[in-house]
Amino acid sequence: MTTQMTIPYYPGCSGKGTSKEYDLSTLGICEALGVDLVEIPDWNCCGSTPAHTVNHVLSCALSARNLALVSKMGFNEVTTPCPSCLTNLKVAEHKMHKESFRAETNALLDIPYEDDVEAKSVLQILYENVGTEAVAARVKKPLEGLRVACYYGCIMNRPPEVMDFDDPEHPMAMDHLMEALGAEVIPYPLKVECCGASYGITRRDIVSKLSGKLLEVAESLGVDAVVTACPLCQMNLDMRQSQINTDNGTNYNIPVFYFTQLMAKAFDLSYRIQGLNKLIVSPKTALARIGKVVEKPVEKVTEEAAEK
Amino acid sequence: MRIGVFVCHCGSNIAGTVDCEKVAAAAKDFPDVVYSDDTMYACSEPGQQGIIEAVKEHKLTGVVVASCSPRMHEPTFRRAVERAGLNKYMFEMANIREHVSWVGKDKELNTNKAIDLVMIAAEKLRRDKPLISKKFDINKRVLIIGGGVAGIQAALDCADGGLEVVLVEKTTSIGGKMAKLDKTFPTVDCSSCVLGPKMVDVAQNPNITLHTYSEIEEVGGYVGNFEIKVKKKATFVDWEKCTGCGLCMEKCPSKKSFDYFNEGIGTTTAINIPFPQAIPKKAKIDADFCRKFTKGKCGVCAKICPTKAIDFEMKDEIITENVGAIITATGYDLFDFKKYAEYGAGKYPDVITSMQYERLMSASGPTTGHIKRPSDGKEPKNIVFIQCVGSRDKSVNRPYCSGFCCMYTAKQAILTKDHIPDSQSYVFYMDIRSPGKSYDEFVRRGIEEYGTEYIRGRVAMVYPVGDKLIVRGADTLAGSQVEVEADLVVLAVGAESAVGAPQLAETLRISYDTYGFYMESHPKLKPVETNTAGVYLAGACQGPKDIPASVGQGSAAAAKVLALFSKDQLESDPQTALVNAARCIGCYKCVETCPFGAIKEIEDRFGNAKAEVIETICQGCGLCSVTCPQSAIQLQHFTDNQILSEVKALCPSMMEKS
Amino acid sequence: MLLSNKKEVVSGMNTYKIASVDAAFTAEVEERSGQIMSQCYQCGNCTAGCPYTFAYDIPVNQIMRLIQLGQRDTVLKCRSLWLCATCQSCTTRCPNNIDVAGVMDHLRHMAREQGYATEKNVKIFVDTFLESVEKYGRVFEMGLMTNYVKKTGRFWTDMDLAPKVLPKGKLPFKPHPIQGRGKIAEIFKRFREGQRK
Q1: Distance CA C9, CA C11 (A)
Q2: Quick one: B294 and B345 in the same domain?
Q3: Is the ipTM of this complex over 0.85?
Q4: Least CA distance to A192: which residue of chain B?
Q5: Contact residues, chain B, for A217 at CB < 8 Å
Q6: Where are the domains of chain A?
Q7: Which CATH number fits domain A141-288: 2.102.10.10, 3.40.1710.10, 3.10.350.10, 3.40.50.11810?
Q8: What's the CATH code of the domain at B62?
Q9: pLDDT tens, chain C, 197 aa long
């Protein structure tokens, strides 16, 4: 039942710091599902948003070095959990299809990149290569009763010409994975809206406004938690939730998980892999709902009424 | 032979980049050319007169005109040549405008190319033979495809003119899109009140044979004598017996069938008459939903039908109709709004299309004319209309303007205020296009008297919060982002070519554009003709059109058919294939390859197998002549010898080598 | 690069001399971004979807218009350039398939090259981030924060979060330099050399 595959792994800088729990849970669940993630030896930072706002050749060179390392490992695919890293890898991959740009970029590198590697998100690998059935089969403690909103962030699927995965307006991969875990997925309309990105440090007002909106809508839907796939989104919604509350006069208390953490939870992997203690907003109340059967008499009646 | 050459300046169209005098001078040296001159406008009255006089004065026996595409003026010059007393096929045209002056800028190169083209035209003319047209009888019946308002108008006008009309409609009732509309702009009169009587006229006119729920399967023949195979699709109800009483609809237990007429707003029964004013008012079973077909048992309708009209065993039937002309009025379809995922189209029930909104406003619609939103049946107060959904949008391959959405949106906003006086309508638009008579005044009235709020900008996204839909757009005039809390969002979907339009065009052998709209013969001067003789266009099948324009074209196409049928006989084009019996070996490869069935198998008086061309059927396509292993079958006016002589004139040295 | 004329930048009441537009600016933006500016028909969809419009001094559709009008200074001095997060909403939804976010990126490059930085802190953050990458090969988050605060003097930045975040052990106090960090510094070096040419 388990998938057997090996793929180079690019954790991204935050995976070694602020999103350590994303890295650990990703490695844990992939192992449980038979996906062997091999970290690229001596990988470097992709340059994130700062690099491409300064220069595209520089930005692509930073990513191309990693792609070239993947090629050297004897692979033509690489996966990363972080959408920002993914975007940089994919944009580099995309731009370097063009020979003149490739030459210009390779001039900055020791090992040239030969236009032969494709980057995919861990989410895409789990959804396409492993599949929701295999995920469901691995579940030991279903998340029944947990009501979640899946939030993909702005660049996981956009622009579609570059990212080439799932629907750019209403992506569903994470929703389906959460359903496979037994969680109740509440359709979240702001799936691809921007959280404020890295402006938390420079322009806190921006993050408070944008992430505040995301939390406002999540709360209005009555979800127990928000599930994310992006370290920056998670940080803005979780770590900065107190700032958002201060700035907006709200008092949200919504835990924000990485989707991989909930998978680890449902697979009943170790606490270390789940890394739930790393979250700033305590997930305790939300997790307590798991296994509690929720009565929904009101909705049933309306359904029957509709039938008539 | 005595050839005259006339080089046209076409004002500066040709003379701007071609030295016409030099071309005329060069032509003087070509074999058999005895006269050559340049002229300002060859097609003008003095221009044509000049040709006629030159023919007489110089005793010309053939004429070359170097000017524009033969598409436009070949018939003009053939007539001029005929008036001069020559056979009209002793004429050749060199296209030095579309093929030379309009495509190249280098005057010297252009002039050389023009000289070459005149030279090969003269070489061909030297081998032309006078051809005489044959006459044949016209079958004065007309086929009209599509029973929307354009097709109805064409049918009534033709029938009034005394013609027998065969009207074929794809759905079970005529009426088309107009029958679904509540009111029409800019007069706000009731759509079905205006259209209804015309539909009844169609049903009652003894000259009109109506085949609904039918499609064109095959088209054979040619102008004056088409043979049409029509597929009458199985309705599972014997329409000879069905009285349209509607009892079956009352009793049918399958009540959740898709309601096509109401655009999926609300449901209908598996056996149904689409709407009360349907013509003909006959029931049809939708096999996708009927329990007899899906589950194998039911048959309630068969039991209760007072005339025993139900026939579950009914099969599609092919019938043949012979006509002399065809008008295609197949209309348009609406853009699939689901492609706008950012608006939640197809996802959020209160984001609907403009046509669905028409059905919500219509008294014959599922809500009997009370505007209720689909999700919870509540009366909406804030209604947002979004324009250009599937129009002027390259990202969904619809770069064209659909033309009528601005107007119907203005109308819908006005009607909304009439239905719900305490409502507020918002229209997101890019430009307001209202060039018709009284159209712009109508839009202004919506804004000034009905308080419709127009916001200049596109909408980026629509998302639900609670029972509201948040519409986030831009107001580019204010230079800002705007949000509207809406109860209902109506997407002004654009027009696209009707489903199956390209396939029908192939069957009819007419051209269509990238988007599936049919091509008229000339964008200015032949708006309802096609490039296939005897096939005409009316309405939105040619491009998005509103009702008056469609009706106008219906009448125009009818007038064209009436003019065609005003003669009893047509002349066939004599540029047909001809078999040289001496060379024909009777292999009949030509018979197999002819797309028109114009070649028959005969025996000569010695009993040898030979092929023979039926001149009035042959369309002169030339397929047979390239197929014939013996070169025995030749297209007159385009013989192998003529074509080779053209090539030889153009590149003599290469011809010698090979 | 003194920013004393900030107010002038914000002004929307300039008279643009249409006949003397800087066509070279329009051409340069087109050349760099590979986008054709005349394809923009000002529908406003980019502004409608842009989450940052509220923080912009010039909304993105007007930036597109000002490029068409060749208004180099107004565009390159505008603060919006520094506040775009490349979230791709505009690019994804543009009916004319214009890569608007890409255009914004290239405008930032041009603004930088010409010494404009109307959101100073954003520029400092970006520079500090890249310094970290250049030095260690990866971003050292703690170091990045410290250096940013040092350069901006905004010592209170995220102070409130410290007691919540630090105990979680997610912010290492030491960098994780990579073995090939010299190679990364080399990439930056070659890049700068190329720029000078």
Answers
A1: 6
A2: no
A3: yes
A4: B342
A5: 463, 465
A6: 5-122, 141-288
A7: 3.40.50.11810
A8: 3.40.50
A9: 344 444 444 445 677 777 767 899 999 999 999 999 999 999 999 999 999 999 999 999 999 999 999 999 999 999 999 999 999 999 999 999 999 999 999 999 999 999 999 999 999 999 999 999 999 999 999 999 999 999 999 988 999 998 998 899 888 888 888 888 899 999 999 999 988 87
Q: Could you tell me if B327 and B462 lie in one domain? A: no
Closest CA to A63 of A80, B139, B156: A80
Interface of B with C (CB under 8 A): 342, 388, 392-396, 430, 456-461, 472-476, 479-482
How far apart are the CA of B475 and the nearest CA of chain C, in angstroms? 7
Q: Do C61 and B476 touch (CB under 8 A)?
A: yes
Question: Are B226 and B254 contained in the same domain?
Answer: no
Q: Where are the beta strands (DSSP E) in B259-348?
A: 267-268, 271-272, 284-285, 317-323, 325-328, 332-334
Give yes or no: residues B156 and B225 share one domain: yes
Domain extent, residue B583, equals 577-636
Residue B487 within any structural domain of the chain: yes
Residue at B260 is within a domain: yes
What chains are in contact with A, requiring at least 3 Cβ pairs below 8 Å?
Answer: B, C
CA distance B386 to chain A (A): 18
**Would residue B514 count as lying in a domain?**
yes
Strand B271-272, strand B284-285: pairing? antiparallel
- B340, closest residue in chain C (CA to CA): C93
CB contact under 8 A, C186 and A110: yes
Under an 8 A CB cutoff, do A158 and C89 touch?
Answer: yes
Closest partner residue to A62 (CB to CB) among C160, C169, C187 is: C187
Residues of A in contact with B464 (CB under 8 A): 189
pLDDT in tens, A114-168: 999 999 999 999 999 999 999 999 999 999 999 999 999 999 999 999 999 999 9
Distance from CA of C89 to the nearest CA of A (A): 8
Domain A5-122 part of CATH 1.20.1050.140: yes
Instruction: Kindly list the residues from chain B whose CB atom is less than 8 angstroms away from the CB atom of residue C93.
Output: 342, 395, 460-461
* B491 and B607 inside one domain: no
Q: Are A117 and A75 in contact (CB under 8 A)?
A: yes
Give B182 to chain C, closest Cα distance, Å: 30
Query: Residue B198: which CATH number?
Result: 3.50.50.60
Contact residues on chain C for A203, CB-CB shorter than 8 A = 55, 83, 119, 121-122
Q: Please state the domain count of chain B.
A: 5
